[in-house]
Amino acid sequence: MVAVAVLLVSLAGREATHGTTQVVTRANPLENPEGTKPGLVPITSRMDRAEAVDLIRRVRVGGQGSKRGYTRARFGENWADTARGVPYARNGCRTRDDLLARDGEEVTYRHGSHCVVVAMRLRDPYTGKTILWRKRDADRVQVDHVVPLSYEWRMGASRWPMAKRVRIANDPLNLMPVYGPANEDKGGAGPASWLPPVRKVRCAYVARFAQVVVKYDLPVTRADKAAMLAQCR
To answer: Which of 10, 26, 40, 57 is the most buried (most CB within 10 A)?
Structure first.
């Protein structure tokens, strides 16, 4: 028993851990309006694709402003648990950990914590990769803002009160743990410039994008709206 305990500590980077066995059923975004269910599954039925098109048609079109003045700090401290009015807000855990726990399988927490995720398995909806993740290699899984913060800034969030920017930055509807290099490739792009490499999930992705911008009354560019409609028609 002592040997086993030592091995567990070693594997966790010299931190004792405890884990949960969790089989994750990923969600159709149309059935996940709060963003509390994990991941994305392709939207395939004719009825659901029509519903997604109707949702996208509700999205406002606007001009894209300057990125001048944008910094990540304009949306609050990185992953701080300070938002109000969104799921998981002020639950004592950092937002990133909430999302890793939502979407991860075989999640392991730091010993003594019900928050800090130190290991898990993630099925990335954007690339189709299955990632065995450890905290010591943190950037291999990144939490994507489906509607990028810099995009929000340029489309009008620069004029919002700080509290609203903190909400959208920490709203699980707008957050998706994904393969880090895919998130870095996306950067601040809208759907006209970047879509997930896995084609079958693209309608679900733009539906999720539409859910966020409709919720926060944020416009998209004309090119982005056309690209979103094209994925679900």
So the answer is: 40
Q: Which residues contact 229 (CB under 8 A, 6 or more apart)?
A: 53, 56, 57
**AA letter at 57:** R
Give this prediction's pTM: 0.91
Q: Is residue 2 part of a domain?
A: no
The answer to whether position 12 is within a domain reads no
Model confidence at 13, pLDDT cuts 50, 70, 90, reads: very low
CA distances from 6 to 1, 11, 12, 14, 18 (A): 9, 9, 10, 9, 14
- Asked whether 166 and 77 are in contact (CB, 8 A), the reply is no
| DSSP H helical ranges for 81-193 | 95-103, 149-154, 162-170, 180-186
Domain that holds residue 37: 17-232
Amino acid, single-letter form, for residue 204? A
CA–CA dist 69, 96 (Å, integer): 25
Contact indicator for 125, 26 with CB cutoff of 8 Å? yes
Contacts of 44 (CB under 8 A, 6+ apart): 200
Domain count, the chain: 1
Instruction: Reply yes or no on whether the pLDDT at 159 is more than 90.
Output: yes
* Residue 79 forms part of a structural domain: yes
Query: Is 7 part of any domain?
Result: no
- Residues 6 or more apart in contact with residue 43 via CB below 8 angstroms: 28, 29, 30, 49, 52, 203, 204, 207, 232
